[in-house]
Amino acid sequence: MWQVNAQCARHPDPDMWFSPAGTIEHATAVRICRSCSVRRDCAHQGITEPYGIWGGFDQDTLDYLRGYRQPDIVTKQLVDAQLARV
After folding, report:
1. Quick check: pTM over 0.90?
2. CA 62 to chain centre
């Protein structure tokens, strides 16, 4: 299970991953995610989650990626492509 290796799982403030965009907490959570070893698995999970920051992507980005959702594999390929860009 990838979650046990996630940096957010060991962070003292798990609510940070559900903070509003534009806040210091939001930016910090995204920064932490971008250096996490399980970012890809987390981002794949995020495409099915309605709230939070997943794999370093906020809900605006995840909503954008979901807009292309056909089979899950297509969405996962889009997530992978987005991960490669940042």
Report:
1. no
2. 8
